[in-house]
Amino acid sequence: MSDEARPVGDVLDAIGIRATVADGELVAGAMVLLKVIDNEGDTRLSMAYSDGLGWIERAGMLRIAERMEAPSDQVDEG
To answer: What is residue 72's DSSP assignment?
Structure first.
């Protein structure tokens, strides 16, 4: 197995990742967090993102995703 970066579309399809994108909408960027288990059973986190996303956009996307996943009673309304 190679440690080189490769497209992951097939991997995401294989684990059932789906997104809602309406007709006429344009996906302008993406970030992918992967939980990877190696041959020895060790787990690591891997992140990939599309070309053109700057660090501030990536940080903002992570923060928004974190808030979206938080239980509604823990979301700060202020």
So the answer is: G
